């Protein structure tokens, strides 16, 4: 049933008893054309575009827990494309393009809200790096502009631009098209649309092995719900990608870290945009519901634990209270953690692998949500055609062997 | 009308201390010891808030931290305004101003209550299904209106003037909660000689004993027993008692965070006192005694003001002397509500009926009837009436087939409900303990522990007071023993007059109404009804996490304390699964909302991050220097004279160094002492340069790569002895270089005998640069022959300066003759002043980091992190000569051999000369072959450094450009918003290419 105000109204007369399931919850078939491992945003988007754009509808998405329950449902939903390198610019801007009408395409309100993403510079070095991004983006046709501290404050009135704070704001890079979206809705919207096209989403189904034929090519997977055959498998398992790829004998250049976030109690509208500070580790926006949504930096040590240390939360709130001193009386409502998979160059891997029929989409680190539509779109292309889309062609696994890195961290001098 | 619902006697409030306060502008009075909720109820005020979505009138539901409805903003002044406080936790003080929230124009008449009429449309998740057409309207129309309607209270607009503190503490036993179980536990631990911290979120310790008039413990009243125990604990110097202190987070290794609220209850807080204090407690053992929370009954229209939890009403009566109403109906599935009914009845409140959903009633049914109260068993509420306050209750009897037959309407002014008790598992669950589900009682309880903790009392499922005390005492005793203390054994308490609150119900109750239309609330704040949860299940949301997120149940500011179990039961019913198969959402910190300021506490201004200052900082400040932040350091940026601009100051400093001599504080450079028999071998491997043959007394400019082959850091290294190197690093790189070195020593080269010591702050480093550098320092130095022959460029000598031991380096980052004097930091200022006097006498001056940057750029010397960015090899950065070609291995050698790093076309460091010498390029600007590049043109490089050079009388720039070294003489373009700037590619050495000035 199509979602619209009219259908909502119609269903109100039948006390909403007429709504069908948003996605089916079938038992797995014996075999599919393609299996996607991981029903997060990227995995579900991949399945959707396989069906919608490549006509491959005999697809299963298998998920150990519940769909959208990993980083898709835990992140601070920042969307932007003002990356430094041309490869990244192309990939993330592709995603940004797809965000524009994603609600209409999926017929699911994902609440993409281009409120503007402002990245603060606090030192001379920050200014150099930010301006390099602004210049590179302008040349690449990607929106990004440099603001003086006064202009930054005009855009975000709560911002403290006093010269007396420890690391005064020396300026900011602003991408007006950047913003936020409703994370759960993205996963659910893709799930519903994919399911409607015939994709089977199989939750509570853990992959225990990857089966391979005599020629080394994949033939399917073993799961807690039994074996499922497929000639093509796309692994999109975020923090646990290394574990799944290990089943095919592949060692991934990934490290997994806990990343924390928190929300305040709901407040009346007080914060108009998204502000990021990579230097003092503060990431903040206000949700439609009114919560201040705040992200922290990663913990210092690798771990698979979805909680983190108190000192990380503390460090982030130090920075928030310094930049927005009126928020000192605001209260934290909930804090949580996720596991992010980080590559040596802080850019993702979206590629074929040395194992025939096995594809991988991982390594998004702390910034994968923004790429969800673009990532799914080009990964579906890669799986369907057995060759990468031009926009993900540089994001190979081999680049770590050959040295053709896309080092966004080095460019920013920090992990972000 | 003043406090007409206050009983003439009873309660623990101070009746001789009346307190005047305002609620929504209305002047009211209460007593010291009142919460805002008890004081409002004493004045007959039930309507205190509006719900989040439907803006339904809401009253005070509870008497504690779990309150979902009664949220208020309390303001002392414009800057000291705190939104979203629970009236049930706010203690009133003289002159307090409290306001209701999220209503307009008034609480009694709220325009947004129209949402309630639209509730047939505004069901769970409706916003995912609409607001999509026309597409543009989301950002311009729909979202702004949704945002304006959402949110609860308003954030203060001014910076918070209050202070917050943090304290670290250790103890043998931390007891969380000072109800009967916690008090008994703390008593046992104290008697065992343990160091104890006991905390409780309320203003007064005692928990449920404070509102129970009937029980006796060891022959005295429960209240007296608790008073005596609290006194004994308070008098012990081994026990720290913290009231108004919430344990809100439980972290690994028994690390527990407590939030102490110090001044919020005071009319005039002392200026010396912080508002709140964060306690970071590391406890050997923890006793969790957090009690249990009563649950609401899910019947139609269970949310009107005047409807509250039965035990809350009993607390208001017995602890505050306040009646929730004069005609009070009681609906229950649990015996504890009978206690409330009996107490109210005894206090003269009319109790028209107790409606007990249980077919047979409970342990106190006969007692209630004997007291003259009508009890209907097998009866349930089927609806309520009343706009701003409940006015009547409809009830019926549940038939054998599960249907409900309507019986009667009971007029009333209040309705109490109890669905049973939910153990408070937050701390246990946060500690990563595993929960277990007890089928018979429908409760989750603590299962296997993950930390050194134990639960006691109601949070452990133990409800009978005698058992609670015994279990609490045993827990305290066990904890003390586990902490290594001798204990006095267990103890049994003699208890009388206690009633065990048996009986409970989970989920929605049956009724005779249209199930698609009635609202039976599960989550009060978020307006989630039983039918919302069923809708979510119908739409395929099968995990409890999905149900939670789709309906938003449990996501309000009470985080589901009153709603989660009912929501879970309704979802399980709809899915036709047992409750444990549906799962439970994760408990996360904080237990209750916790002020941001308590985390940030003193970390503001200069205390935000430690400020590192060199020994000459104060001297430079007095000399008028401007400073810049470099990492945590404050570095002198330039030394402007009266009226001098930055540009003029930097030009003057640069010219002075080139013409005479300058003095510069280089102390912030990282310094590492590398010592040991294998020190040379270690240096040989960790740097790209050869180090084995470096002679003692000589220096080398070292380049360090990561294993990927990209430049990581650089610095001059001096060989002090055969087994000792003095390593310098970049200012920002010092910590990571030390880690990098340690990493290799500890994991890769465990065979090497080498020790590393950070000496960054042990040495003050004074650079003296310029043609008169030798002349400047010569008279001050003893024991070192400074002559060109005896001390060549890139050498290091030991001697003294003005009697102070020094390591004197002959080196240069300016291209001029230069020395760097290392002296123990304590002498830094004195030596600086002496050298400075000599420098000035020779026509020199101090210079700052900006002049240093210009001077080095004139010579084409790179700054790692500015001219390189972690993607640049030594060769590309123009320092390929440093790589030891014949070395068998070094960190980065394999990385450098990777295919892509050997490809032609990578970027290389070059100089850029603008065609117009007056134009200074912008650092970070891109470089293209065309003056007018088409959109999405590939940039062939970028500007890394750009300055005005006073000596050269023109601008200079360094850049990384693809195949840069093959482009010398080529004209390229730097596109800017106002048009491209033409540049010529030149050698990166702009000044003294032959290097003669280095070694005159």
What does this structure look like?
The complex is a heterodimer of chains A (about 425) and B (about 1000). Chain A has about 425 residues and is of the alpha/beta class. Chain A has helices at about 5-15, 40-55, 85-100, 100-105, 125-140, 150-155, 185-195, 240-245, 310-325, 370-385, 400, 410; strands spanning about 35, 60, 80, 115-120, 145, 170-175, 180, 200, 205-210, 220-225, 225-230, 230-235, 255-265, 275, 280-285, 290-300, 330-340, 350, 360. By secondary structure, chain B is of the alpha+beta class. The chains are: A alpha/beta (about 425), B alpha+beta (about 1000). At the A-B interface, helix 1, helix 5, helix 7, helix 9 and strand 17 of A face strand 6, helix 3, helix 11, helix 12 and strand 32 of B. Strand 17 (about 330-340) of chain A pairs antiparallel with strand 32 of chain B, so a sheet runs across the interface. Chain A: Its EC number is 1.5.3.24. Chain A: Belongs to the SoxB family. Chain A: It catalyses: sarcosine + O2 + H2O = formaldehyde + glycine + H2O2; sarcosine + (6S)-5,6,7,8-tetrahydrofolate + O2 = (6R)-5,10-methylene-5,6,7,8-tetrahydrofolate + glycine + H2O2.
């Amino acid at each position: 049933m199509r979602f619209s105000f009219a259908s909502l109204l119609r269903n109100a007369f039948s006390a909403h008893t007429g709504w069908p399931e948003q996605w089916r919850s079938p038992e797995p078939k014996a075999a599919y054309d393609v299996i996607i491992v991981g029903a997060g945003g990227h995995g579900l988007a991949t399945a959707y575009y396989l069906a919608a754009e490549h006509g491959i509808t005999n697809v299963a998405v298998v998920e150990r827990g519940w769909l959208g329950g990993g980083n898709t449902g835990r992140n601070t939903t920042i969307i932007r494309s003002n990356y430094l390198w041309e490869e990244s610019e192309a990939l993330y801007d592709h995603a940004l393009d797809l965000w524009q009408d994603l609600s209409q395409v999926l017929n699911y309100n994902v609440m993409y809200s281009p409120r503007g993403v402002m990245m603060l510079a606090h030192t001379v070095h920050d200014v150099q790096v930010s301006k390099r991004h602004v210049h590179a983006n302008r040349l690449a046709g990607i929106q990004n502009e440099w603001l003086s501290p006064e202009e930054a404050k005009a855009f975000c009135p709560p911002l403290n631009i006093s010269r007396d704070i420890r690391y005064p704001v020396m300026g900011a890079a602003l991408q007006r098209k950047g913003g936020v979206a409703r994370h759960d809705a993205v996963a659910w919207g893709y799930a519903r649309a994919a399911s409607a096209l015939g994709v089977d989403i199989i939750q509570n189904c853990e992959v225990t092995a990857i089966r391979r034929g005599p020629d080394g090519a994949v033939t399917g997977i073993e799961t807690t719900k039994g074996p499922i055959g497929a000639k093509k498998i796309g692994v999109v398992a975020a923090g646990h990608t290394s574990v799944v790829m290990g089943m095919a004998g592949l060692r991934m250049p990934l490290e997994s870290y806990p990343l924390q976030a928190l929300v305040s109690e709901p407040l009346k509208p007080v914060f108009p945009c998204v502000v990021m500070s990579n230097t003092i580790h503060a990431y903040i926006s206000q949700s439609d519901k009114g919560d201040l949504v705040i992200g922290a930096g990663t913990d210092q040590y690798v771990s698979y634990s979805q909680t983190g240390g108190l000192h990380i939360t503390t460090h982030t709130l130090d920075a928030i209270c310094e930049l927005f001193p009126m928020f000192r009386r605001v209260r934290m409502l909930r804090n949580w953690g996720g596991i992010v998979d980080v590559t040596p160059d802080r850019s993702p891997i979206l590629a074929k692998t040395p194992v025939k029929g096995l594809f991988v989409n991982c390594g998004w680190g702390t910034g994968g949500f923004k790429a969800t539509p673009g990532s799914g779109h080009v990964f579906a292309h890669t799986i369907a055609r057995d060759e990468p889309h031009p926009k993900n062609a540089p994001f190979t696994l081999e680049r770590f062997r050959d040295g053709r890195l896309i080092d966004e961290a080095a460019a920013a001098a920090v992990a972000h | 009308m003043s406090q007409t619902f206050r009983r003439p006697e009873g309660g623990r409030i101070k009746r001789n201390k009346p307190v005047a306060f305002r609620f929504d502008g209305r002047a009211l009075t209460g007593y010291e010891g009142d919460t805002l909720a008890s004081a409002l109820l004493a004045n007959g005020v039930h309507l205190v808030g509006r719900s989040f979505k439907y803006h339904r009138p809401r009253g005070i539901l509870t008497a504690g931290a779990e309150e979902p409805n009664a949220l208020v903003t309390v303001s002392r002044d414009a800057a000291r305004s705190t939104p979203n406080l629970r009236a049930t936790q706010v203690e009133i003080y003289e002159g307090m101003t409290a306001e209701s929230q999220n209503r307009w124009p008034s609480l009694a008449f709220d325009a947004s209550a129209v949402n309630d009429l639209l509730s047939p449309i505004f069901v769970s998740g409706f916003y995912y299904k609409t607001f999509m057409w026309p597409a543009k309207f989301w950002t311009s129309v729909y979202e702004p209106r949704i945002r304006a309607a959402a949110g609860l209270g308003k954030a203060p607009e001014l910076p918070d003037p209050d202070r917050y503190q943090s304290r670290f503490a250790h103890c043998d036993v931390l007891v969380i909660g000072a109800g009967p179980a916690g008090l008994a536990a703390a008593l046992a631990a104290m008697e065992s000689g343990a160091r104890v911290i006991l905390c409780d979120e309320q203003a007064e310790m005692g928990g449920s004993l404070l509102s129970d008039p009937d029980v006796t413990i060891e022959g005295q009243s429960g209240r007296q027993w608790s008073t005596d125990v609290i006194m004994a604990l308070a008098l012990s110097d081994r026990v720290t008692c913290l009231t108004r202190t919430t344990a809100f987070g439980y972290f690994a290794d028994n690390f527990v965070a407590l939030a102490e609220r110090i001044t919020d209850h005071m009319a005039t807080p002392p200026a010396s006192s912080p508002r709140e204090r964060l306690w970071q407690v590391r406890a050997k053992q923890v006793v969790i005694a957090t009690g249990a929370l009563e649950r609401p009954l899910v019947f139609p229209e269970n949310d009107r003001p005047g409807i509250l939890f039965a035990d809350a009403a009993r607390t208001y009566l017995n602890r505050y002397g306040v009646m929730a109403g004069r005609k009070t109906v009681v609906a229950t599935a649990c015996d504890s509500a009978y206690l409330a009914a009996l107490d109210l009845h005894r206090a003269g409140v009319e109790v028209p009926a107790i409606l007990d959903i249980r077919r047979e009633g409970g342990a106190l049914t006969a007692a209630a009837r004997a007291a003259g109260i009508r009890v209907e068993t097998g009866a349930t509420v089927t609806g309520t009436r009343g706009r701003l306050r409940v006015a009547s209750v409809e009830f019926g009897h549940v038939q054998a087939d599960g249907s409900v037959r309507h019986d009667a309407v009971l007029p009333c002014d209040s309705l109490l409900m109890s669905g049973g008790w939910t153990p408070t598992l937050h701390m246990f669950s946060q500690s990563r303990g595993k929960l277990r589900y007890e089928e018979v009682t429908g409760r989750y309880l603590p299962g296997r522990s993950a930390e050194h903790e134990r639960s006691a009392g109601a949070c452990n499922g133990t409800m009978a007071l005698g058992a609670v005390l015994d279990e609490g005492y045993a827990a305290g005793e066990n904890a003390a023993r586990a902490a290594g203390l001798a204990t006095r054994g267990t103890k049994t308490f003699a208890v009388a007059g206690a009633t065990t609150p048996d009986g409970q119900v989970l989920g929605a109750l049956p009724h005779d109404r249209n199930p698609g239309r009635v609202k039976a609330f599960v989550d009060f704040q978020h307006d989630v009804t039983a039918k919302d949860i069923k809708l979510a299940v119908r739409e395929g949301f099968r995990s409890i996490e999905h149900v939670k997120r789709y309906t938003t149940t449990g996501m309000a500011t009470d985080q589901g304390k009153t709603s989660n179990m009912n929501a879970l039961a309704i979802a399980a019913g709809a899915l036709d699964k047992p409750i444990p198969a549906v799962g439970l959402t994760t408990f996360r910190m904080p237990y209750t909302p916790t002020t941001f300021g308590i985390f940030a506490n003193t970390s503001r201004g200069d205390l935000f991050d430690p400020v590192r200052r060199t020994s000459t900082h104060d001297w430079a400040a007095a000399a008028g220097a401007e400073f810049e932040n470099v990492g945590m350091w404050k570095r002198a940026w330039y030394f402007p004279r009266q009226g001098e601009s930055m540009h003029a100051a930097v030009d003057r400093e640069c010219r002075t160094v080139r013409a005479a001599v300058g003095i510069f504080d280089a102390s912030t450079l990282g310094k590492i002492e590398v010592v040991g028999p294998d020190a040379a071998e270690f240096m040989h491997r960790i740097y790209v340069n050869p180090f084995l043959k470096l002679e003692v007394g000589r220096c080398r400019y070292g380049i360090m790569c990561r294993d990927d082959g990209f430049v990581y850091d650089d610095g001059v290294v001096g060989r002090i002895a055969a087994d000792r190197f003095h390593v310098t690093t970049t200012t920002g790189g010092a910590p990571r270089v030390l880690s990098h070195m340690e990493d290799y020593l500890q994991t890769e080269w465990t065979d090497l005998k080498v020790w590393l010591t950070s000496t960054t702050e042990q040495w003050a480093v004074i650079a003296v640069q310029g043609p008169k550098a030798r002349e400047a320092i010569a008279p001050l130095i003893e024991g070192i022959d400074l002559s060109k022959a005896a001390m060549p460029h890139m050498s290091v000598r030991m001697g003294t300066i003005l009697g102070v031991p020094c390591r004197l380096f002959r080196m240069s980052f300016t291209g001029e003759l230069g020395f760097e004097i290392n002296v123990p930091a304590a002498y830094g200022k004195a030596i600086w002043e002496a050298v400075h006097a000599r420098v000035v006498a020779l026509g020199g001056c101090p210079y700052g980091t900006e002049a240093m940057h210009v001077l080095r750029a004139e010579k084409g010397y790179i700054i790692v992190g500015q001219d390189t960015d972690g993607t640049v090899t030594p060769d590309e950065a123009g320092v390929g000569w440093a790589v030891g070609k014949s070395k068998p291995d070094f960190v980065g050698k394999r990385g450098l051999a990777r295919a892509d790093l050997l490809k032609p076309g990578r970027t290389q460091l070059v100089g850029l000369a603008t065609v117009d010498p007056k134009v200074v390029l912008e650092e970070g600007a891109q470089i293209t072959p065309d003056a007018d590049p088409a959109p999405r043109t590939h940039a062939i490089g970028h500007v890394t450094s750009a300055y005005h050079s006073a000596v050269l009388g023109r601008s200079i720039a360094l850049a990384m450009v693809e195949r840069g070294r093959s482009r010398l003489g080529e004209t390229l373009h730097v596109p800017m918003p106002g048009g491209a700037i033409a540049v010529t590619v030149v050698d990166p050495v702009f000044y003294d290419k032959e290097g003669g000035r280095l070694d005159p």
